[in-house]
Structures
1.
Amino acid sequence: MGALVDACILMGTGGDELPPGDESAPASAARDRLLALLRDHCADLELGTTLDKLNAATTRRPEHLLRARLLLLGALHRHDEALDLLSISDSTSAPALAYAYCTEHAAGAAEAAAAAAHGVSPASHGAVSGAATSLYLKLLDRYVSPPNGGPPKLSAANDLLTHWPESVPAVEALRRLPPSRPVADFAPGLGALLVTASNRVHHAQIHAALLRAVSVQTRAELLEKRSKRIIVREDAQCIVCGRRIGTAAFVVVRAEKLAHIGCHNH
């Protein structure tokens, strides 16, 4: 299995014959094959060693094998490294990959952080780096201040704000934006974020109003039913057989007259 993975890594980067940025059908096919191998046989591989091989093979072509590297980093719970890689990538697909990565691993990262907070051995959860903070917030931090010292990735940041997840409070995203940057830089994302937040509040208000209406209606129906209750006196008689109703099952017939169920049905 290891030899097959090594071969796919070599073919996936185009070897040393293709200049950086060039693409070939065999290289693309090899990358797809590598992804399939990693997904299906992840448990059979030494993940750290395989990741080292991927990193070494992509020194000249950092965009190649990006998905494979992300798959391994996610399996190793090395989320900070994955977000660093995605945030400095110049690939046009990087923002979408980054959002998908956060969505896929957010729950697992939070669970691992909670386990660590309760004293559970990290060995059972992998080496979790900074999982206590939302991966979406970490990604936004890196777009605003890229780890390679480059200029802010405003387009990616605005796209992330536009699709901000409901599970993370919008106010947390606002706190991450540097006051030194003009608000106009984030206008597209902030506009969408505030509209989404406003819609959620509006929908919550409508839902609360519906619940109140249902409650009022239920109380009204209960009062109506109580107003129609029948009090059976000790001497109440069945209008069919003439015997006392007592504690027997009965029905109300003809202007609140009572009858035994058995008498009424016959």
2.
Amino acid sequence: MNHEDELQEFIGPPIISREIEHRDRKRTFYFRELGTNESEAFLETILPKREKNGKAIPGALPPKHANARIIAKIVCKENGDPLFTEEEAGKVPTKLAIALRDASLHINGLTEEAKEEAKNE
């Protein structure tokens, strides 16, 4: 086994499943784990605008449809194909959309909780 194969075995598959509950029912959803460069570029499209020095602008809101962008980018079919277009993701009921968004961000290490977990591993 070469170095790349060993690394890929360690990293695991780029598709991660999570059970999501909605209206007292559970369903397994699949989520893409983004690579570092893809993740950083994607963050630019969903975070509120910042000042040139990187500081948050007080009262700045995330771009319009940020939740739909997150869901369309990360939630996928078992084979990795997108489950939703951005337009379809925008029609997902709000409570379910929030659960999918939160799982998507957590899986990709983009929440404070996920960052803390990574530090403690």
3.
Amino acid sequence: MHDFVIQQALLYDGSGRAATRGAVAVGEGRITAVGTDVGPAREVINAEGLALMPGIIDTHTHYDAQITWDPLASPSPALGVTTVIMGNCGFTIAPCRPGDRDLVMRNLTHVEGMSLEALRSGIDWDFESFPEYLDALERRGVGPNVACYVGHSSIRTFVMRDDATRRAATADEVSKMRGLVVQAMAAGACGFSTTRNPQHNGEAGVPMPSRLADEEELLALSGSLKQVGRGTLMMTKGELTPIAFIEQLASSAARPYLVAALLHSNLVPEATFDDLAQIAQARGRGNRLYGAVSACPLTFEFTLHEPYVFEGLTSWQPLMQMDPAATKRALSEGAFRAAVKDELSRRSRRLFNGEWDKVFVAQAARAENAACDGNSIATLARERHQHPLDMLLDLSLAEGLDTRFSATLLNSDEAAVGRMLCDPDSIISLSDAGAHLTFLCDAGFGLHLMGHWVRERQVMTPEQAVHKLCGQPAALFGISDRGRLAPGQWADLLLFDPATVGRGKPERSFDLPGGASRLTTPGVGVHGVWINGERVVNRSGIMPDAPRAGRVLRQFAS
């Protein structure tokens, strides 16, 4: 007898094949039967009018710190995610010497988008090496299934300490780093991750350590996966990082390479498609490159206390090392403003390109400015006969930098985004769940794909979308027993209403350690989520007594 059966559901099996109506039976955590007559069960769930698919595999998360105090990795399970890939961009917390913990946390403050005090009070440091980190997660238990990259910045910091953000590595240091990558892979890492993106800075604008690596270091560390014979490589590339070099890294490792973050810019509209075309050419040469694309517009909430939106600008860099009083003085100076305006006048592939009509006042800090709420900076600047930068800076300075803004930075051209999502060499990804917590929450990217892009825009069929969210990432990472509705697969399941599925509006919560805030979002149309056969989500969200049903994944097919 099965443990439970979900019957009369529209079944999307994750393969891309046409949906069928039927039942899925589960026993001892695995799918035991799929069909119209699956036999008796201890519990029967009537899913008439609903659809059932494998749980979403989120290939781009940053829960490495959060999961040590929040094993459920909220809000992802409530948004249909049953497996998270952590440690993207090289941002991990293991390996880490006890004496370097504060250094590592300071590096993470900007890229994780949470306060240093939240990290200091939240992370449970009962590990030092990468294998010990995986062991610690297993000891505590995890809500979703978890796979972990070994991260370049952590490896570099472990070997080079303070010098990791200052210089190139010596041959001996590279050899030690390579040994740590091999050790992590042997312990169960899913691959090796890094970043070359100039937007990726730690506290006070210090570059994340991997950005100091030269080509020889990258070749050596990526190539270590050839020695291991399995694993996936990933890089968040910078504007000046050629796809040809990433192809060279993939070729030297003889492993697949996931290239992030391919987001569409209205000012350089063909750049992402050029990348995807080069990725297709690389695949034609036998090198398995994939482009990580997003189903979501990249929308940030921010204040000038934490101006992440602008920190990729060279002219803004000096402010990142100033104290608050000096920052306010600099923001008032005409020379600084002129430098920013000049830089924005030159088109470039960066986070912000001066599209002021897409920057809004989300919430003024003072009652006398409440009329600004909901208006774009472009509109307000026209009304005041100002340059938009002056408008934004003057308002923020008048409110002690407490004005909250919202900016849609990239992926705002829906026709272009639809093309990217349907590209055969793209992986739908880039939720950044667990990072940028004060600015955004795209953890519901999969529900947004099913609701907005499938139901409303019809850019792809539901079957294609489910394959993109489940079967395709499972194959890329060698997770052979998840991502499909088939007998023998682990029962990672998402039950949803296709007529309403989507993600809700962002909400600000104050539930980080020390009461620090983050943005989160609810799921819409989600009726249930099961992880390894155990229910963790009902129609109200994550259940109060939700079990730590996930597994730390350590075995990946080659």
